[in-house]
Design a protein that fits this description.
Chains A, E: One of its GO terms (molecular function) is molybdate ion transmembrane transporter activity. Chains A, E: InterPro entries: AAA+_ATPase, ABC_transporter-like_ATP-bd, ABC_transporter-like_CS, Mo/tungstate-bd_C_term_dom, ModC_ABC_ATP-bd, Molybdenum_import_ModC, Mop_domain, P-loop_NTPase. Chains A, E: Belongs to the ABC transporter superfamily. Chains A, E: Pfam families: ABC_tran (PF00005), TOBE (PF03459). The complex is a heteropentamer, with two copies of chain A (358 residues), one copy of chain B (237 residues) and two copies of chain C (233 residues). Chain A is α+β, with helices and mostly antiparallel strands. Chain A is globular and about 65 Å long. Chain B is α/β, with parallel strands linked by helices and 237 residues long. In chain B, the strands form two sheets. A six-stranded mixed sheet of chain B has the order 2-1-3-10-4-11. In chain B, helix 2 links the parallel strand 1 and strand 2. Chain C has a single domain, classed as MetI-like fold. With 233 residues, chain C is mainly alpha-helical. The longest helix of chain C has 34 residues. The chains are: A alpha+beta (358), B alpha/beta (237), C mainly alpha (233). Chains in contact: A-C, A-E, B-C, B-D, C-D, D-E. At the A-E interface, helix 4, helix 5, strand 16, strand 19 and helix 8 of A face helix 4, helix 5, strand 16, strand 19 and helix 8 of E. The complex binds adenosine-5'-triphosphate (2 copies), molybdate ion and magnesium ion (2 copies).
């Protein structure tokens, strides 16, 4: 499955001029507030008509302004989780959830409903109307409503912003299941690097209506430029690997990288599975000698490939650990003290539990 | 539905006839076993409805004009047209000024009004208003009171204006004045001061109802006369 | 005869008024919703014209409206002839004609209420329904319609109440034939035209007011019920 | 005399109609807003009664409304006496009386529109204004009022249009005095009562329609302007 | 300044029964979605009337159901940033911002407006109406509107949820200024531990309409129980200290704790200032020997006071470093390998830049 997007759209003084392609899995739209993320999603959903543009989903042309093609929104079957909920105020939660199912040729089985209700923790709310829900409850129902409409593509505009961390931690794995098992492509808008790192296969960074950067998540998230949209503190590298082993006793997953391996705390995963690990630069400690007796399990040997200072008193050190690039952010003082230089061998120490779980 | 109603004789009558005519048709129905319905409305509306093909058999107008209008369009059976009733117009006053007024050439209506208004039917549209205006013109009073006239939508409304004390005096049919205790008849206009007040009756050209003629005859008969006279009409023979 | 008991003719007028007002209200509803939609959402040439046309019965003296109906829908009028020839529908001097007159007189009131409600609907909700697979027709039926229910109810009650009070256009169009086209309102009017008719007119007025108040209360209750469901907070 | 030129009397009727319709509309507006607020938001004993009262002019035949006005506001009526004695205000046979009649007849239409709009206002916005320090009066003036403007405009235009078409209650209450209380509507009515008056009636009808259409267009434009500002998306 | 809150409120099946006191500074309301946070704020703002309760602000009784007192919302002068924006659709952004100022005896100077507009980056939007703003832009305007109304107390219901990280990083320091310089008390609802850790003086954890925990931020955030509301990954300790030194060259702040000190990368701070540092448990590495040649600047000696395992393969180790409690979360495997026990001396290694800046 691929989505080819190409659109020009003017909204007052704001001009959107974006072209990108997204494939299977999750494509994250990343960008500062007002950069045009929602506008892009609206064009995909068929809620906005570009002045000039083209939208092709899996060979199916949805928009082509040259040929005057515009497939209306209800024929696209794209589930859209809006930034502001948009629940139907006259329907109960249950009716809201079921709304999309009425219009689907292939209705989901009813235990699908039960499962999603359970996952989102909205069981006690089913008989209520949206006016009587809390902010987070509304958002959860909106997520459920979109999921249950059997979409071909899921458009999620900051879906988890209003959720508490515990609930987020429950919903994210489900999105992964959708992505991996249901093979549902997802376009995901989020300001959270950790969410994106965890879910996204591709990341598209939007800046002022234009694509500032696009590419595989592992590439884009390792760029310092990502900090236009994200917290500097969330810079890091996204590393891809394969599960080599699972230690059930210690609940430790061993992930094989290019020439090394790292260990991550987590629940059982199938051996051989491809996984991604987001290593935050600020979580990496460098040492010039191999450290002993540390609680950190992951100590990777490597050599410094680049050094980049900034004016905030920190230095970003790029380390190549057997083909796996690792970014470490350390203080200028340490940088001076350890006399680090390009080409120097170092050890990167990564706290196991600091890793994003899969 | 229309099917049964078409067997009934349908009368289109000026609204002011309601009291008397309801009683007359009731007697006729009882005596003959036939049925009738009467639609009371403004003569103007009835005439235009007849023009538009209303399923009426008999038309009784409150003035000659609307009957002439239909006659001009050949919508009535010419030989069936008869003058049915006559009426008089009277000067009424609200209860608190019941002194009789001598209505004669040049009588001082303006002074009587004393700044108040003269209530009457609209002088252009309501028949009683037209007759009233003609009478006042004949008596040479009109030009003094023309701008003091309050033209009401109907005689009944004019009557109400007087009985509520809005206007000190008014000109209405004697038929209407008789029934309202709030007003006093203080004078009757001479019969020669205005065109004769005549309610004509006629069978309509399109009427196919065989009983209609019988009803017209009954309405014009001596049997019916007392009902009209009781309301103050003059029965014309 | 007790003061309040109604004569047969009066009962007939009550029945007839109820029937005419209900039919006028219900029959004009679909068209009312359609026109309100067009006026609220449509962008077409002649929209102002349509809007003006809808308001005409309000602007014109009812008698004029009645005459126009007579000219158009009468036995000899162009539409009247057409309806009679093609569909065998005769409106003139039938209760159906009275319903037409009442429907026309109440139409601007109904359309305005519904239109106001439509204009207040959050288009975002309709968009959301669209992305969930609902076609425009379904969006209308499942989202727009329920949300504009308060306006529809208001429009219906205005139309009904107007039909109860209307006589100018009715009496001009279909006359005042007892048992066929004589509504409470025209009966009241007739009584007011003759000496001594005031008491009877007053009695019928009370009846008319009672009926309309009952309808009004019912509508308020419905609106309350509908509103409670959609209540925000 | 060209077919279309109006006589002096007719010009007077045009002026008068405009004045009466405008005054009726504007004077009933504050009360209309107040009553709409009460009905939309209030919770008090007798609310149904007030609601019924507001609808009365719609339910009753206009002639009856005219009679009632006469009974209440006439020279001998309780309110009429009060107004005359205390404030020197006399309504009978004055254009002001006609404006009262038109205002009363249009009142239910105005209140309904405004009420519908009030019921559609998001209370959350009013709460927000409150937390920013606005007293209920200010909240109403700066938030509620601007948001219900479409309803107010709709109510005003309905009231105006109704005033242009009204004659039943007017003529009954204040009669049909050229230059004082004779509106276009009553002039049209008068013409229709005489054989051959159709042409004149038709001419005045056209005038009336032109005026009302102009008002309607203006209101649509205003509503569009207001709506554009509040446009969501 | 103190706020005494005591209220019972029933909303359908939900019952709120909460009593707490909050003092100067920021009081964070923490809790899962649907736990009753917004309901509490609504009572404080005067938007909801408790069935039974009492609300006293600085000796000023705002609500007392026993005595029938209920000060209406517009007399309370509490600025409220709503969870859903609630901008006035008929006013421009500028008019929205100015709205609260009309009603204030003591209007803020107009450069206050300029400053807040600048801070929130809403300058280009001033002439627009809210319907034409993006989600984040709306939220920023709502923040500005409340700030400009010269409130005596600020109620913030997830104000930063829709903002990108970079914008958040700009707004947070301003909130700190409000708290510290303007002495504006703030009640703050958030799901983000890092936001709360940074801002809050007191934390109140709400669970199902009741107070589950309340106390100083440093206490509450160190409790494992906080994870009802927060991500487990954000557990840690909040440490209080005083700025001892600022190294302008390396942009390093030295913060003195009870008996030790730590170094934090950051911009200039006044020496002597009281600061707080949130140390995430997952950012602490333990070592049984003093490590050498590490890029981590902070190595604190201490001894293990408690060990608490969980069933996720990690162990929480409480370490006392000269009177300063530090929480470290390590894998079970490391725990076994290092043979850690209560009372054992250890070194806690904290990456400098991993600390919350002030
Ligand atoms: N009008 C209402 N009727 C019934 N229940 C309600 C009503 N309003 C809120 N509730 C319930 O009260 C509880 C508390 O709601 P509240 O809005 O205070 O939650 P919250 O802590 O702010 O949640 P969130 O983080 O999701 O915004 C929720 O369970 C909600 O479902
Ligand atoms: N109707 C409109 N008229 C004018 N400008 C608009 C309109 N709608 C959006 N904009 C502008 O377009 C830009 C992009 O908006 P969009 O909603 O796509 O942003 P976004 O990336 O989703 O931001 P956020 O993260 O804040 O939701 C913004 O600068 C916004 O101000
Ligand atoms: O429009 Mo009327 O004057 O209520 O019949
Ligand atoms: Mg957006
Ligand atoms: Mg909330």
């Amino acid at each position: 499955m691929t989505l080819n997007f190409e659109a020009n759209l003017t909204l007052g003084k704001f001009a959107l001029d974006v072209t990108f392609t997204s494939g299977r899995g999750v494509t994250a739209l990343f960008g500062r507030s007002g950069s045009g993320k929602t506008s892009i999603i609206r064009v995909i959903a068929g809620l906005a008509r570009p002045e000039k543009g083209m939208l092709v989903f899996d060979g199916d042309t949805l928009v082509d302004t040259n040929r005057g093609i515009f497939v209306p929104k209800h024929m696209r079957r794209f589930g859209y989780i809006f930034q502001e909920g948009r629940l139907f105020p006259h329907l109960t939660v249950q009716q809201n959830l079921n709304y999309g199912r009425w219009f689907n040729r292939k209705p989901k089985e009813s235990d699908e409903l039960a499962k999603i209700v359970e996952l989102l923790g909205i069981g006690p709310l089913l008989e209520r109307r949206p006016g009587k829900l809390s902010g987070g409850e509304k958002q959860r129902v909106a997520i459920g409503r979109a999921l249950l409409s059997s979409p071909r593509l899921l458009l999620m505009d900051e879906p988890l912003a209003a959720l508490d961390e515990a609930r987020k931690a429950e919903v994210l794995p489900y999105l992964e299941v959708l992505r991996d098992e249901m093979k549902l492509p997802i376009i995901y808008v989020s300001h959270s690097v950790s969410e994106v790192a965890r879910l996204a296969d591709r990341v598209i960074v939007i800046d002022d209506g234009r694509v500032a950067m696009a590419g595989a998540a592992s590439e884009v998230l390792s760029q310092p430029l990502i900090s236009v949209a994200a917290d500097r503190r969330e810079a890091g590298t996204l590393v891809e690997g394969k599960v080599l082993n699972y230690d059930a006793k210690h609940k430790l997953v061993t992930v094989g990288l290019k020439k090394s391996s790292i260990q991550i705390a987590g629940t059982e995963v199938a051996i051989g599975k491809d996984v991604r690990v987001h290593i935050l630069a600020r979580d990496v400690i460098l040492s010039t000698v191999r450290p002993e007796q540390l609680s950190a399990l992951n100590i990777l040997a490597g050599s410094i490939t680049a050094v980049r200072g900034d004016d905030a008193g920190t230095v970003d050190i790029h380390v190549d650990c057997g083909g796996t690039p690792i970014l470490a952010r350390i203080t200028e003082l340490s940088y001076e003290r350890l006399a680090l230089q390009q080409g120097m061998p170092v050890f990167a120490i990564i706290k196991t539990v600091a890793l994003e779980s899969l | 539905g229309r099917a049964q109603a078409s067997e009934k004789v349908t009368v289109f009558a000026a609204a002011s006839l309601k009291n008397a005519l309801d009683k007359v048709t009731a007697v006729w129905e009882k005596e003959t076993g036939h049925e009738s319905v009467t639609s009371y409305a403004a003569s103007s509306a009835l005439a235009k409805q007849i023009e538009a093909g209303a399923p009426a058999d008999i038309f009784i107008s409150a003035d000659m004009d609307w009957m002439d209008y239909l006659a001009g369009k050949n919508l009535i059976k010419p030989d069936s047209r008869k003058n049915l009733l006559g009426n008089r117009i009277v000067l009424i006053a609200s209860r608190d000024r019941s002194d009789p007024v001598k209505i004669e050439k040049g009588f001082d209506l303006v002074t009587l009004l004393g700044g108040g208004r003269l209530a009457m039917g609209s002088v252009d549209s309501v028949p009683a208003g037209k007759y009233g205006k003609a009478a006042l013109e004949f008596l040479g009073v009109w030009r003094f009171v023309a701008d003091r006239v309050a033209g009401a939508e109907s005689v009944r409304a004019a009557l109400l204006l007087v009985s509520r004390g809005e206007a000190p005096y008014g000109i209405v049919y004697q038929t209407d004045a008789a029934a309202d205790k709030g007003v006093t008849v203080v004078g009757t206009f001479p019969e020669d001061s205005h065109p004769a007040i005549i309610y004509p009756i006629a069978l309509l050209d399109e009427s196919k109802n065989a009983d209609a003629a019988s009803l017209v005859d009954f309405i014009r008969s001596d049997r019916a006369a007392p009902f009209f006279e009781m309301q103050g009409f003059t029965v014309l023979r | 005869m007790s003061w309040f008991s109604l004569t047969n003719d009066e009962w007939t007028a009550v029945h007839l008024s109820l029937r005419i007002a209900s039919v006028a209200m219900l029959a004009s509803l679909p068209l009312g919703i359609l026109v309100a939609l067009l006026l609220a959402r449509g962008r077409f040439w002649g929209k102002s014209l349509l809007n003006g046309l809808v308001h005409l019965p309000l602007i014109l003296p009812p008698v004029v409206t009645g005459f126009m109906l007579l000219l158009l829908f009468g036995r000899r009028g162009p539409i009247g002839t057409l309806l009679a020839d093609q569909f065998g529908i005769i409106l003139s001097f039938r209760w159906t004609g009275a319903a037409l007159a009442c429907g026309v007189m109440g139409f601007p009131l109904m359309v305005r209420s519904i239109r106001l409600s439509i204009e207040a609907v959050d288009r975002g909700l309709e968009d959301a329904a669209g992305t969930l697979g609902a076609s425009p027709m379904w969006v209308f039926a499942t989202v727009t319609l329920p949300l504009i229910l308060p306006g529809i109810i208001a429009g219906m009650i205005l139309s009904f109440a107007k039909a109860m009070g209307e006589f100018g256009a009715t009496i001009t169009f279909v006359s005042n034939i007892p048992g066929e086209t004589q509504t409470l309102s025209s009966a009241i009017y007739s009584f007011l035209q003759v000496p001594g008719g005031d008491a009877a007119a007053f009695r019928l007025t009370i009846v008319s007011v009672i009926i309309s108040m009952a309808a009004l209360l019912a509508s308020e209750f419905m609106a309350y019920y509908v509103g409670r469901r959609v209540d925000v907070e």
